[in-house]
Specification:
By secondary structure, this protein is an alpha+beta fold. It folds into 3 domains: about 90 residues, Zinc finger, CHC2-typedomain (DNA Primase, Chain A, Alpha-Beta Complex), CATH 3.90.580; about 130 residues, DNA primase DNAg catalytic core, N-terminal domain, CATH 3.90.980; about 220 residues, Dna Topoisomerase Vi A Subunit, Chain: A, domain 2 (3-Layer(aba) Sandwich). About 35% of the residues lie in helices and about 20% in strands. The protein contains 16 helices and 21 strands. The strands form 6 sheets. A 5-stranded antiparallel β-sheet has the order 1-2-3-4-5. A 5-stranded mixed β-sheet has the order 13-12-14-15-19, sandwiched between helices. A 4-stranded antiparallel β-sheet has the order 6-9-10-11, covered by helices on one side. Helix 3 crosses helix 4 and helix 14 packs antiparallel against helix 15. It is globular, with a radius of gyration of 25 Å.
Length: about 475
């Protein structure tokens, strides 16, 4: 039986290699991989390694390697269909029934990759033509030079309503295929279909195998309803299950041991150009459950980087709220918020100082964001909610005094240097865990526990809950 590639990819996405193999081989975390004794040879020193980022295993003593399917075939002597059936049951994915119509749909789905590749080449050529001069100027002003444009295959959609449509039709691409790929706007209320992307800078979006599945477009004109426009949901493009630059970042994530998630396409490209190749982004929306799981498969403690304004703080809090209910041992998040509220990463020029481990964003002055001074998830849960409430003019604790300027409080919350609870201050000192510093500040100031607490999870001492002003019924 021939299994649809999308079916096999779904199983791989749901089952990390370390989980499948760890049920049959005793594995131990070793750096960014898992190590164990070879199941195929008698040995005393581990030569068997599993990499969740690549979804693969390597046995150097037996000179074998593969994915979760080949492991079951090698270790348990199963045929490929038997291995697929067993893993599908573990993943909770129903087995597909043999259906000639489904096979036709799968063939049509495969052809959409070719259509999208042709569209990407057309957009690339348009950017380098005379018509793309304004788009090239925009990219140059954002610090995205020719090398980065080629690396990320950035393109340009002309303002004509039928430029792409006519180009693909000349290559014998049917209009139904263009619609299925999300390239045309059509419908009962649209008499004649037309190009979805017009007068926009185009960012191709690839799946985790590097195949183009959709596009994101940034408008060059100011009088458009949406500054950013993505491909619609199609058989290939599922916005909540993809990360921009996900395929290209995999090896860099493995080398760096972590992954950085920023907010937009331009942010990713600037970060990569600055030397942070392990950078990805959601596709113009808030982080989803599926994207969070993908980030955790890439690294145990991803770094989420947000703008330092009120919206960025709220986005960080939403990410923390999303993560807390599904936290597992060994998994967490770190947060990097830009130092000034008015600074946005996409509006700045970013570079990396060689050997310093410091990310520097330049707008009107040099503004260091030290990646070694990141906010851990417990700190965010315990303090960022109060920072957000104060930015909105609300107070969780009667004894907590509002700061004179919301920006000053936001900076205190972002840097982690100091946090106010009532009249006391808890400072983060070298060699002293932040949680202890927070608790010490509360003890000295006598501030109520609710000043630094959320209903989701108590980040402070459990015995303090009794005098907390916040209900912990759901904690």
């Amino acid at each position: 039986m021939r299994f649809p590639p999308s079916f096999l990819e779904e199983i791989r996405a749901r089952l990390p290699a370390s989980v499948v193999i760890g049920k049959r081989v005793k594995l131990k975390k070793q750096g960014r991989e898992f190590a164990g004794l070879s199941p195929f040879n008698q040995e005393r020193t581990p030569s068997f390694f599993v990499n969740d980022t690549k979804g693969a295993w390597f046995d150097f003593s037996a000179q074998k390697n593969g994915d979760i399917f080949t492991f079951l075939m090698e270790a348990e002597g199963l045929s490929f269909p038997e291995a697929v059936e067993q893993l599908a049951a573990e993943a909770g994915v129903p087995m597909p029934e043999r259906d000639p119509e489904a096979e036709k749909r799968e063939a049509a789905r495969a052809s959409l990759y070719e259509v999208l590749e042709l569209a990407a080449k057309f957009f690339e050529e348009s950017l380098q033509s005379r018509a793309g001069a304004a788009a090239r100027g925009y990219l140059q002003n954002r610090g995205l030079g020719p090398d980065l444009q080629r690396r990320f295959r950035i393109g340009y959609a002309k303002p004509d309503r039928n430029a792409l449509k006519e180009h693909l039709a000349a290559k014998d691409i049917a209009q139904d295929q263009m619609i299925a790929a999300g390239l045309l706007v059509s419908g009962d209320d649209v008499p004649v279909s037309f190009d979805r992307f017009r007068e926009r800078v185009i960012f191709p979006i690839a799946d985790f195998k590097g195949r183009i599945v959709g596009f994101g477009g940034r408008a060059l004109s100011a009088d458009v309803p949406a500054k950013y426009l993505n491909s619609p949901e199609t058989d290939l493009f599922h916005k909540g299950s993809l990360l921009y630059n996900g395929a290209e970042a995999r090896q860099a994530v493995h080398d760096a041991g972590t992954v950085i998630a920023v907010e937009g396409y331009v942010d990713v490209i600037q970060m990569v150009g600055a030397g942070f190749a392990h950078t990805v982004a959601p596709l113009g929306t808030a982080l989803t459950d599926r994207q969070l799981q993908i980030l955790w498969r890439m690294a145990d403690e991803p770094i989420l980087c947000f703008d330092g304004d009120a919206a960025g703080i709220r986005a960080a809090q939403r990410a923390a709220d999303l993560a807390l209910p599904v936290l597992e041992p060994g998994k967490s998040l770190r947060f990097a918020l830009l130092p000034l509220r008015e600074l946005h990463l996409g509006d700045a020029r970013v570079h990396r100082r060689d050997g310093s481990g410091v990310l520097v964003a330049e707008q009107h002055e040099r503004l260091p964001v030290r990646l070694e001074r990141l906010l851990p998830l417990p700190f965010l849960v315990g303090t960022l909610r109060v920072g957000e409430d104060r930015l909105d003019g609300r107070h969780r604790d009667d004894g907590a005094r509002a700061p004179r300027r919301a920006g000053a409080e936001a900076r205190r919350v972002r840097t982690g240097d100091s946090v106010r609870g009532g009249g006391g201050r808890a400072r983060r000192r070298r060699g002293r865990p932040l949680g202890r510093a927070l608790r010490g500040g509360l003890r000295r100031s006598g501030a109520r526990h609710g000043a630094l607490c959320t209903p989701i999870r108590c980040a402070l001492r459990p015995e303090s809950v009794a005098r907390c002003s916040v209900s912990h019924a759901s904690a």
